[in-house]
Amino acid sequence: MVSASKEMAVYCFDTLTVHFSGGTLPPPAFEDGEFPLFVTWKKAINGGEPRLRGCIGTLEPRPLITGFKDYALTSALRDRRFPPIQAKELQYLECTVSLLTSFEITSHYLDWEIGKHGMILEFTDPDNYKRSATYLPEVAAQEGWTKVETIDSLARKAGYVGPISESMRRKFHITRYQSSLYTMHYGDYVAHVKRTRGTTSLVGVRW
């Protein structure tokens, strides 16, 4: 079983720093494989709580090397909820890489555990629009939501703005899943690169 690792987070930071500075992307230090995956960027300033800066991935299996390379940039630069990350923000970033596993169709919209399962919500709204959205396993716990609050927020994320009734929730189609994740702060990334590659190999890194 492949788990999310430090090397995967390093590769995402490498990809973003090379995007800003130019140069050659160092080869990844992990083996390839195929998994659904996500890359999440958060930003913390002056010791504050890290705030989401971008999160995009795929629910379909992708080769890990090209997947992390693509989504490191897509989540940083093209998450429509946020302006693109700028080079001056690098020192405040943390990166979380997630590999998604154990997909299971649930029998009820509450058939999942906060902090353990992510959810894919699929439903047809009263205007006959098909909608879908997903939250990673850590989201509900980080936000302090109940299960119902999580499901309702997920419906809003899917673009639905109308009333949400209990009878509507019972018609929701939920697929739950689990994830392996690894989080790395920029300072830890710089220290890792200095230790493993030497200062002459630091591409675009400023400290």
Description:
The protein has 207 residues and is of the alpha+beta class. It has two domains: 6-101 and 180-201, Hypothetical protein ph0010, domain 1 (Glycoprotein, Type 4 Pilin, 2-Layer Sandwich), CATH 3.30.700; 102-177, Hypothetical protein ph0010, domain 2 (Dna Ligase, domain 1, 2-Layer Sandwich). The protein contains six helices and six strands, in the order αββαβββαααβα. Helix 1 (6-21) crosses helix 2 (64-77). The protein starts with 5 loop residues before the first helix and ends in a 10-residue tail after the last helix. Pfam families: AMMECR1. InterPro entries: AMMECR1, AMMECR1_dom_sf, AMMECR1_domain, AMMECR1_N. This is AMMECR1 domain-containing protein. It comes from Ceratopteris richardii (Triangle waterfern).
Q: Strand count, sense and closure of the main sheet?
A: 6 strands, antiparallel
| Distance, first to last CA | 36 Å
User: Could you name the CATH topology of the largest domain?
Assistant: Glycoprotein, Type 4 Pilin
**Averaged pLDDT:** 93
Strand order of the largest sheet: 2-1-3-6-4-5
Number of helices: 6
How would you name the CATH homologous superfamily of the largest domain?
Answer: Hypothetical protein ph0010, domain 1
What form results from the Cα inertia axes?
elongated
Q: Any idea what the CATH architecture of the largest domain is? A: 2-Layer Sandwich
InterPro entries: AMMECR1, AMMECR1_dom_sf, AMMECR1_domain, AMMECR1_N
Protein name: AMMECR1 domain-containing protein
Pfam family, one: AMMECR1
